[in-house]
Structures are given as C-alpha cells and as structure tokens.
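JOB MANIFEST
job_type = single_chain_structure
chain_count = 1
residues = 362
[input]
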Amino acid sequence: MGTGKRGLIATALAVVCAVTVLAAPGTAFANPTPSPTPSAGPALAAGKDLEAVRQKLDKLYRAAGRATDEYNAAEEKADKQSAEVVELAKKIVKGQEKLRKLKDRAGAAAAAQYRGGGLPPEAHLVLSDDPQDFLDGAGRVREGHHATKGLLGELTRTQEDLEQYAKDASAQWKKLEAGRKAKAAAQKKIEKQIAQAEKLESALQKEEQERLAELEKEAANKAQTAWLDSGILDEIDGKASEQGKMAVQYATAQIGKPYQWGAEGPKTYDCSGLTSQAWISAGRGIPRTSQEQWKRLRHIAVQDMRPGDLIIYFGDASHVAMYIGDGAMVHAPRPGRTVTIAGAGSMPILGVVRPDPDTGAN
C-alpha cells in the first residue's frame, strides 16, 4: 500500500476523533509498540505482568459481550412472546363475547319453541288443515333447520377456537417464562464477568492502569498495522448508499456516549444496540444482536465493503462495528468505554454484512 494513502488515512482518523485506538499521524502504523513509560517500569519490575492482565481483561469483557448477546436475544424474544400473549388474550375476549351472543340466539330459539306449546315446527305443520299453510310452513321449516344447523355449527366452531386460543396462550406463557429465566441467567453472567474485570482493574496502581491503557492501544495498533499491510485498503473503494450515509451519520453522532450492556440509546449503547439503532434511523430495521446480524444479513467480502456495512468480529460473532470508510469503523467497545472510532482491523474480523441492497450507492 502507498505511504501517501496510509498517511491520508491516519490523518483523517485523527481529525474525526482525537481519542482513538490509533496513534497520531506519522506513528500510527510505523511504531505499534512504543517503549514502556518510566512510571510503568517499577510496577513491571515488581512482578506485575500487565500483558497477562490485559489478556485476562479482554477475555472477561468478551465473555460479557457474549452474555450481552444472549441477554438481548432473550429480551427480544420475550417482547415478541408478550405481544403474542396479548393478541391471544384479545382473541379470547372477542371469542367469549361472540359465544355469549350465539348462546343468547340459541336461547331465544328455544324460548320460541316453548311458546309454541313445546311442539317442534314439523308437528305444527302436520296438524295444519290448510294445504297452502302446509306448503308455506314447509319452506319455513327448511329455513329454520338451516338456521338452527348454522347456529349450532357456529357455536361449536367458536368453542373450539376458544379452546385453541387458551392452549396457545398457555404455551406462549410457558415460553415467556423460559425466556425470562434465560434473560436473568444472561444478566448474571454479564454482571459476574464485568465485576471480575472491574476488580482486576481496580487492584492496579494509577501508573499500572495508564500502562495497561497503552498496552491496549499497542495491541489494537499492531492488529490494524498488519491488516493495512496486507494491502486490503487498496481494494476497498465502495461508496455508501443513501441509507448507508444516514446510518453512518447516526452512529458517528453517538461518539462519546457511554457503553452500557443491553442499551439501545439514546444516552448509552452496547455494540449491536448502536448498529441496529443506526440502521433503524436510516429506515431499515435489522436484527438486534451481533450474532443475529451475522446470521441473517447478507454477507459481503471484506474488500467489497462500503460505509454503513457492519463488521462482525471474533469467531463467535460477539462484537459488531460499522465501517465508515478509510479503514476505520465506529463502535461501542465495552464497559468502561465510550462510543469511538477505531481501526477496522484492530480486532479479528469474522466477516462483513450489508443491511441494505446494492442499489443506490454513489
């Protein structure tokens, strides 16, 4: 890749967001692992393996990310099941009202027969002496038979519908309860992983925390440098669609807002909450979780991606970001961090998905 293009990319990233995992122009890719600061020296000499701490934190936060996906999926499923239970309840209420009216009609028919001396219409017909009355009565009897048969059939169908609605509602309620348990279990996982990570970080001295932040940047820089050195950016030249531009505009407008697991804005976000809301703002609903985004959206080759596409990270699809062009992405990283811009290759890329059609790019 040409050094001029690389310098342009680094400069663009620095202008968009001064606080980023990328270093300043001129050192962004040339020196991914700066020397330890003097203040960090004594801590490391005392036996603190900060690189091991960094890897442990990364493992804990990734586990929290997976659990967050489980939580979001359970929440989304619970919302759908709740809506289905409500709809079934409405059907049951309407069915009960319909059944009441049908029973009233059946009762009125029975009362009419009672007022006729308790004899069925056929008996009155046989007892008639007038031939014309007999013929007219025969027609009325046939009509009456059809009406009675129809009424009984409708009563039966309504009762069967109510029984089915009740069974469906019971089944949905059981699923809802199971979903709530899954959601609670996922929440416990998240809180446990985050608590362990926060405990680990809080045990560090100030200079160790600063050095740890440097190590995180160095790891991201190293990965980004390797990705750029592959020449991939020379192949990526896709232009954003109109919807893609709107999604990017929304996502980048959230820069600086805190990460919060399970959040979809407008004040806080998790990774898939940011990408899903960005595309909703562009008029296109997409799956809520990063794993579902990976499963259900159209896969695109990395070299074919364009601004607005979603980059899925790690083998378990536990993280997602939005590509914004020039080798950069915007994402909600993890607890304790804010929505920010980073190098698109700063984490292991699983693949790229596109929420909108290919038409309309410019």
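[summary]
Strands lie at 298-300, 310-313, 319-325, 328-331, 340-343, 349-354.
The first strand starts at residue 298 and ends at 300.
exit_status = 0
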